Amino acid sequence: MRKLQRDSSLINIISPCVRNCCLNDENVCLGCFRSIDEIIQWSDATEQQKQKIINLANARKIDHRLKYRSYIDSGHDSNEDQLLRKGP
After folding, report:
1. pTM, whole model, 2 decimals?
2. 3-state DSSP percent of the chain in helix, strand and coil, to 5
């Protein structure tokens, strides 16, 4: 049985852009949660830098959801939450 080697140079990280760009007061996109600087740097970034950007964006997304969770829990549902409760 032959083992496949994983060549790290072949990994291509796809942009986290969701085409829903809206910057907050801190210049962070509320669609993908990257900072404006990270968005600008994306095309020239190495795969390692892209992974770091994605990790930072994911942390910002979690922080954002936790920050506004108490607002939603107080009876103000987001459209996404309403759709999740309704189901398909």
Report:
1. 0.67
2. 55, 5, 40
